[in-house]
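Researcher: Next entry in the queue.
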Amino acid sequence: MQKIPYDEILNIQRKVDIVDVIGNYLSLTRKGKNYFAICPFHDDHNPSMSISSEKQIYTCFVCGASGNVFNFVMNYEHISFYEAVSKVASNAGFPLSFKNISKVSLKDNKYDKYYKMFDIVNKYYQNNIKTVYGKEALSYLHKRKITDDIIKEFEIGLSLDDNNVSKLLKSKGYLESDMVDIGLCGKKDNFIYDIFRNRITFPLCDIEGNTVGFSARIYNSDDQNKYVNSKESVIFKKGDLLYNYKRAINYAKEKGQIIIVEGFMDVIRLYSIGIKNVVATMGTAITKQHAKLIRRLSKNVVLCFDGDKAGEKATISALEVLNDIELEPKIIRLEQNLDPDDYIIQKGKDAFLSHLKNLMSSIQFKLEVNKEKTDFNDYKEVSNYVNSIAGELEKIDDKIVYELTVKKLANETGLDVSTINSLVSNIPKKEKKIITKAKSITKNKYEKAEEYLIYYMLKDSKAILLYQNKVSYLSNDKLSQIAIKILEFYEKKGYINVTDFTLFLEDNNELIDEVLRIDSLNMPDDVDICVIKDYINTIDVGIIKREIDKLKEKISSEQDVAKKVVLLEKLATLKKKGV
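Model: Structure for this entry, 579 residues:
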């Protein structure tokens, strides 16, 4: 892949806002003039990443991750710097004018053909439902109160009772083996056939919005298999994606909340009544990868699984996974064992909105679930009930919530509050993982002088020219590399700017991190030439001091008298320079 010219990169960077780009990946909270987010580059539990719209950079105050908008996308998605530039430009609607760069796939290029195959088939299915063959399917959807607008929004389509998908893909040059590998077709006795036949199709997308599978529903037959789903493949793994993730990003940010349901029909139903900050696990238990994706959307999570026992079990499992990353979801528990789709159809929009306004805490949910399983006439069951709840009480940090919950439990069981408190206090406390900032290394005045010189070289050309004319070298190799790069940038561009300079460093994360660390030093911004000269003099003295120290080591180990005399003379000469 050829390089994108620096001026092109700079032009893109000036057209986008790093806050908007990172906001598409992470949930942001504004504090003062900056935004903060849970850092995705370490095991973060409190928002420690700062994003500056003014400087167009991000910095994590714990792990030190930092950079510009392209570095974030590069490191977050594990792609090259130039792929990140191309992606940011494409997503912002600014196509690259530099034509010689190869097209960048959102995923590994070796899978690009699979994404194209799914895209072709998805468009084919969408077209089918608009034809005369789709009238019955459309009628079915309309009876289910799924409007044409929703059909278009979610790209709902129709597979016909034929093998036209395999024929279509063959006509475009795709191999039968690839059609079978990704689950669009099957093969038996050398006969290739379409997996999805005579069903309403719902495309399943990855977190980038690429179609990677289908779920297909019967609508005019008695087939016992209500749904047929794509098999997992190299591009489709249920545990790694959430249905409607791409659409939900902006709505979750706008509402400051994300709702998690089980099925894609639940998502579509909520969407139809104006609730768009919703994603689905597609019937699988919430995985660690799901949890990470959910945390990117919002810290304010609502679980609304099916109202039956399976949904109850799934909620408990989800709470455990989400609690592990310190998310405390609220819960909607629907009556009559209904899922959200059927609940809204039967009970109406207002009934669901009432649930959404009166959310249960996780402790309330667990109390209710355990209470339903308990025979309060059986002392042993009451004991098991209280002991199981004690473990949950121990996790409550809010003193008022704790006391109210304990009183409620005492009223239900007839136990004294003191008895319940004693049970809670006897539970071994779990050690919380504490992530602390790395201890700063104490630097001597010579090391500080080098840092301060770089600080002002990043601010003003006068410091750059003084370095160029007065400084022979810097003892710190990383700072020396930065200084050389600053000179190179200034000679080419005629100015200096921290954000633009980080773009010039491209994917050199080590130097970028160091540049932004130095830029964050609490120093006066006004460049005083006399002060800069003092730093340079201190650097020179430091160089001489290091040479003296090396000479002293040589003198102490030298056995030859004549050689020792020569070394002593050199030492005297250095000392005359003012050390």
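Model: Residues 365-425 form one domain.
Researcher: Noted, moving on.
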